[in-house]
From TrEMBL:
Glycosyl hydrolase family 13 catalytic domain location: 15-403
Protein name: Alpha-glucosidase
Gene that encodes the chain: malZ
Annotated coiled-coil segments of the chain: none
Matches recorded under InterPro entries: GH (IPR017853), GH13_cat_dom (IPR006047), O16G_dom_2 (IPR045857)
UniProt organism field: Amycolatopsis bullii
Superkingdom of origin organism: Bacteria
Length: 525
């Protein structure tokens, strides 16, 4: 599936959540030294790039998405010099590096926010954020009724009586992008990291930077005043010019949870972002018609703007898909209800996850692999409350268990926790059952999830580029052709179906003359 018009159009990108990937110094927390020690695992896997979640200095109230300094490395992870070495070492292995940038907000420990608190109402320092007087006779009510995406009000009051906006934790004040100083600052941050060799940025909350300056009240569920505002396009056109001024095809990838795929695709016009995550695909339940609909809509919307699709099954914010697909009942995903109390059949979930892996690997465009996905890891649902660290859990009073379950440290080797993660334990507890799911154990097993991903990523490079042609192989069978020689089929139905003609290149499970339920196959005509 080689596309010479841009490496990012067909890239397989691996997401590293640094705290949980590998611990190099024995403090129980993942770090850059741990990543550097495991680069060969990623090279052997066959990925084209790594996307790192935030590695900046941070009090870690939100796992690093509360940034205190956008031009340095969190000491818990290492140093700026180590980051530069990691970038260089990845490049020598043919692996590009994408890093997170968090332009919607910062940490309350950021020097600008501390200056705003000290300067007081009406000051230039406060114009960098959304400080406003409260409502009511004594200003004791928030400026509007906006809710934080982490639960509770989106406003917090400071001692002098003003309130500041935070769409997430109260320790993550939102920047005011109407202020030119914010725009200049982030353009400089882009250049800082491009100068150090990074190949691109994944833009956190890419749809949320610009707010309606009138800050109107909203009905429940309405995010219009702080999502997908027209002013965003001007910002990303400016960023694209900066990216294009560097060699090596530097890329910008948007994280946008928008309900309208056509509107999301507008950010992928040739002078804006290069790519964006396909969350409609991620949240799709295990259903043949639903998957075909999402794929059709995705390809159509992206074709209209000349952009590649990007397929993703899991990430650091959502329930791992082995667990989702194994649920009895709803197999999709929603932030409104993570369904952590649902009954889960991990055997069925794993079988479906293997088939889904072959689907994402075969679809035209790029894809993302979340760390541990290649091992078949599931969501850890039984983390003790006292060990949970996600602010979502705290801000909802435990009503939402949060995202810790998909962030449990990776098992590398051995038969007992911390499974080679590091010499000092792991910051979240790992299931004992992961002894059979370590990278070491799976590397020696040709039938493992790791072997499936390695083979699929290798074969994927030779798949035909171009458009997808749907095939009719019966009710409940998702099948398509790429080029004239490659056929994909996935059986969602309750019974085996006849195996299509062709030489089997790869199958997600055992096949004979029939394609079993929840099984996918690649065929060469």
């Amino acid at each position: 599936m080689t596309d010479k018009t841009g490496w990012w159009r067909s890239a397989a990108i691996y997401q590293v959540y640094i705290r949980s990937f590998a611990d190099g110094n024995g403090d129980g927390v993942g770090d850059l030294a741990g990543v550097r020690a495991r680069l060969d695992h990623l090279a052997d896997l066959g990925i084209d790039a790594i996307w790192f979640t935030p590695w900046y200095p941070s009090p870690m109230d939100d796992g690093g998405y509360d940034v205190a300094d956008f031009r340095d490395i969190e000491p818990l992870f290492g140093t700026l010099a180590e980051a530069e070495d990691l970038i260089s070492e990845a490049h020598t292995r043919g692996i590009r590096v994408i890093i997170d940038i968090v332009p919607n907000h910062c940490s309350d420990e950021h020097r600008w926010f501390q200056a705003a608190l000290e300067a007081g109402p009406g000051s230039p320092e406060r114009q960098r954020f959304w400080f406003r007087p409260g409502r009511g006779p004594d200003g004791s009510e928030p400026p509007n009724n906006w809710k934080s995406r982490f639960g509770g009000s989106a406003w917090t009051r400071v001692p002098d009586g003003e309130w500041y906006l935070h769409l997430y934790s109260s320790r993550q004040p939102d920047f005011n992008w109407d202020n030119p100083e914010i725009r200049t600052e982030f353009e400089d941050v882009l250049r800082f990291w491009f100068d150090r060799g990074v190949d691109g940025f994944r833009i956190d909350v890419a749809d949320g930077l610009v707010k309606d300056p009138h800050l109107p009240d909203v009905d429940e569920g309405d995010e219009t005043p702080f999502s997908d505002q027209e002013g965003l396009h001007e910002i990303y056109r400016s960023w694209r010019k900066i990216a294009d001024s560097y060699g090596g095809e530097r890329v910008l990838v948007g994280e946008m949870w928008l309900p309208d795929m056509a509107r999301a695709a507008r950010y992928l016009r040739r002078d804006e972002l290069h790519s964006a995550f396909n969350f409609d695909f991620l949240v799709c339940p295990w259903d043949c018609r639903r998957f075909r609909d999402v794929i059709d809509r995705t390809l159509k919307a992206h074709d209209e703007v000349g952009a590649p699709a990007a397929w993703v099954l899991s990430n650091h914010d959502v329930t791992r898909h082995v667990t989702r697909y194994g649920r009895q009942g709803d197999t999709g995903f929603s932030f409104a209800n993570r369904l952590h109390s649902a009954t889960v059949d991990l055997e069925a979930g794993t079988r479906r996850a293997r088939a889904a892996a072959l689907l994402t690997l075969a679809l035209p465009g790029g894809l993302y692999v979340y760390q541990g996905e290649e091992l078949g890891l599931w969501e850890v649902l039984d983390i003790p409350d006292e060990l949970r660290q996600d602010p979502v859990f705290a801000r909802t009073g435990g009503a939402d268990p949060g995202r810790d379950g998909c962030r449990v440290p990776i098992p590398w080797s051995g038969t007992e926790p911390p499974f080679g993660f590091g010499s000092g334990g792991a910051w979240l507890p790992q299931p004992l059952a992961w002894a059979d799911y370590t990278a070491e154990a799976e590397a020696a097993d040709p039938a493992s999830m790791l072997s499936l991903y390695r083979t699929g990523l290798r074969l994927r490079r030779d798949l035909p580029a171009g458009s997808l042609e749907w095939l009719s192989l019966g009710e409940g069978v998702l099948a398509f052709r790429l080029g004239t020689e490659f056929t994909f089929a996935l059986n969602f139905s309750a019974s085996p179906v006849p195996l299509p003609d062709g030489e089997i290149l790869l199958a997600s499970g055992p096949v004979s003359t029939e394609l079993p339920t929840d099984t996918a196959v690649w065929l060469r005509q």
